[in-house]
């Protein structure tokens, strides 16, 4: 009888430990994916900003060329 109780307790402990490790793993994976998405967004915005600034400089250059 005692061995059946210990078997159940150890089994339940294994399930709880496995569940905890799975939760930690999923959390780490999600955080990594979130950081990668933020990095991609930041790079995209930097590219758009650079393109806008380049176009603005070209427009200002064209306007200053017309004024002379």
Low-confidence runs: none
Quaternary organisation of the protein chains? single chain
Structural class: mainly alpha
User: Which shape, going by the Cα principal axes?
Assistant: rod-shaped
Q: How are helices and strands ordered from N to C? A: H
Could you explain the architecture of this structure?
This protein is mostly helical and 68 residues long. The protein is 97% helix and 0% strand. The protein contains 1 helix and no strands. The chain has one helix at 2-67. The radius of gyration is 29 Å and the shape is rod-shaped. The model has no long low-confidence stretch (mean pLDDT 94).
What keywords describe this structure?
mainly alpha, 68 residues
Which secondary structure elements does this structure contain, and how are they paired or packed?
Blueprint: H1 2-67
Concise account of the structure shown:
The chain is mainly alpha-helical. The protein contains one helix and no strands. The protein is rod-shaped, with a radius of gyration of 29 Å.
